[in-house]
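Re: folding output
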Amino acid sequence: MKKNLFFTGVIFLFTVLSIKGQTVIFEETFDFPNGPNGWETIDRDGDGNEWTDIDDPGTTDPWGFSGKIVFSSSFTYNGQSYNPDNLLVSPAINLPTGNPATLTFLIGGYKEDMVNPDPHEHYAVYVLPEGSAFQGTETPLLEETLPNAGVAFTKTISLAAFAGQTVKLYFRHFNSNNQIILILDTVKVTVQGNLGTSETNPGSNPIIYPNPASDYVYLHSGSKITKAEVFDGTGRKMNVVLTGNKIDVKNLLPGNYLITITTGNKTYSQKIIKK
């Protein structure tokens, strides 16, 4: 069973300024009150349990996560033992040509004091071109069983083989019968070094930069932008004005916001961070 999480619009997240060091072209921290934007869940085993979000920083922050996280269950509840096969699928990400992109994320298992030994969650990460149908027979870029729980492991995967393609990330929780919970947080795609406008392929999909921003957010689109609105984490519309191709965000408090952009009859949503 497929489910779109909250915003179904394709999210492209690019930085087109020339920046030394790393350029973030996609980032998801799952900190919005209504869950991750544009992500899709697929319950492949059909047990009614799938990836979802939870805000329990008192438990998960000491392990190395931050704020709200997403998780998939594999424990026994009311006599039912879950052996999940759950997919969490990212929005489409347009990877630039030139410098190779790198995927990083935090992954871990839920730790309970009464559990001995630690649960050992099993998962895999796949990257597929946009429009591909996941079959389960694809070769993952990473597959492993976590050695212990209560720790946020940082994982890094090269996306060099997908340069110039539009792809989706697939996080699969499976082969984890009667464990507890697999936790995912802070999914980020970066490019090392400078990223110029010649390395992006905007088409009709808006580009928003810089992100994070402190003063202005600039918008670039192959189609005319007719409206742009900014909302805070509670869904409240912010008092900002689109002037030409930029939005003044100086008066916004630091934090996460959602910007929606309308071009013609299409609306795009993307998270921005105000520094």
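--- second protein (sequence, then structure) ---
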Amino acid sequence: MKKIKPSLFVFLTAAIILQYGCSERQLSPIKGSLKCYVDESLYNVVKAERDTFAVLYVESNIVLEVVKAREGIASVLNGEANMFVSSRNLNDEETAFAKKHVPDMRSFKFCYDAVIPIVRENDSKNEITLDEIKKILKGEKSGYKVFVPERNSGVYEYLKENLLDNQEFINVSIVQSEEETIAKVKATKNSLGFVGLNTLANVTGVKMLEVGSKVRSDGEVLYYKPYVAYLVSKTYPLLRTTTIFINEFGIGLASGFSTFMTSYQGQKIVSQNNLGPATVPIKMVY
């Protein structure tokens, strides 16, 4: 597939002028300023997208603001933000609100991400099963000091909804961010933390645990690392599908940036960040 070229956005700009007339001539998908809210789990990859977009379209000025998942979704639903890149989709309450109050809000699949269990780099443990994670988070199994980002974070919400059936964590330390989770794990013996995969980019001092879920006919548990192929094939047990939310009038810079992020070139950046492309086909390598 050919790389995206500026001519696509020239076409979009022309379409805007025809549709909205003289009063909207300043609206452009490649020019102007935008504050893009970003889930803390996805900052590294979105920054890489923004930096490449800025080189291609020098009249664009996109400022990234890191927020928690719930905060970002609330901001875009309330019209405080034109764009939010989220580690999760809307929940039932948010969906109902959007249908009633923000019917024109758009959403696009961005990439496949993962929640990662981490331990200290010198910890002897290399694997963990989903059942073991559930028991630890429910307080049914001891031995580790557990750290999870705060309640508005996508990691917290994912674990609570998908592993605990929305029950509360027991004997788990709630910290302010994914970065603090990593710092706590580094500094604490016999510790276990949970963060987003992209947050671990260029991080040292911790290691990812392989996660086991499927059991073969002979009783052997299959363990998985968050390789791109396992994300795209939805084999990795703690998989997340990330979403871009757009709430803007017409087709402005938020629309242009999201178009780039979901294009071939944008998805190549996703793959370079060891995440799973979600909008273009890729060659699977296991």
